[in-house]
Amino acid sequence: MLNPPVISASVAKVNRQAPLIRVFSLLRSHGVSQTAWVLGSVLEDRYLNLFDRLYGVTTSGYIPLEQTSVSSGDTKHLHRYRGVNAWAFKSMLKSMCPQKSKTFVDLGSGLGRACILAAQYGFSRVTGVELVPEFCSVAVRNLEHFRHRQHNMGKVQIINIDAIEYTATATDDIYFLFRPFSGDVLMAVLQNIREGLCRTGSCTIIYSERVLQTHSDYPDIEKKLGVRADMALERWGQRFWRFTC
After folding, report:
1. Within 10 A of 39 (CB to CB), how many other CB atoms are there?
2. Domain total in the chain
3. How far is CA 150 from the centre of its chain?
4. What are 125's strand-pairing partners?
5. What is the mean pLDDT of the chain?
6. Which of 57, 100, 148, 200 has the most CB atoms around its CB within 10 Å?
7. Any idea what the CATH number is for the domain that residue 115 is in?
């Protein structure tokens, strides 16, 4: 039998204090209002699951890729599953007001939350691109459950494929990324999208991160695309940047 790890009193105290330190840091940098939104978002993710309860789906929680069938060699530069905050995403669409005649793809679509919301918004076609097969299976079930509640939902498909492979031939109008990957994978995807402009003429990239994210990939995206975001929003502890290419 494995013996439980011995944790000193000082280490345990630091672990207990860490969340409080982050809250005080948020208060200093973002103020009371934004801190409240961030804390509300964390509560929704971990405990309330109001979006899932409302629509009868399963999209909440944090899932490390080590708990999936994806090999460790494929997970370099990939990040754990965490659904975009539903209320922040809805607010983003309302503010950015993209044309509903456009096609929308979520790169790293996970359990399908953004695809559900994009379909509800009314895009002409919604595609979820996800490498993890277990996530794809759950996403398909979630979409079926949602369709029973909203019969006028548009065309939605979930594809179990690598984002680099997908974007090599993609012709979508709007690409959404909620920090699904970084490093070489992110750069390869962005390069494919840039090269694809000769097929599409133009496209929009909406990139999102949580306010609590310690390392931002936003500067790398701006540098790779060679354009600055023409719109930025912060809602429910979630940041969104829009790039028009």
Report:
1. 14
2. 1
3. 23
4. 103, 155
5. 85
6. 57
7. 3.40.50.150
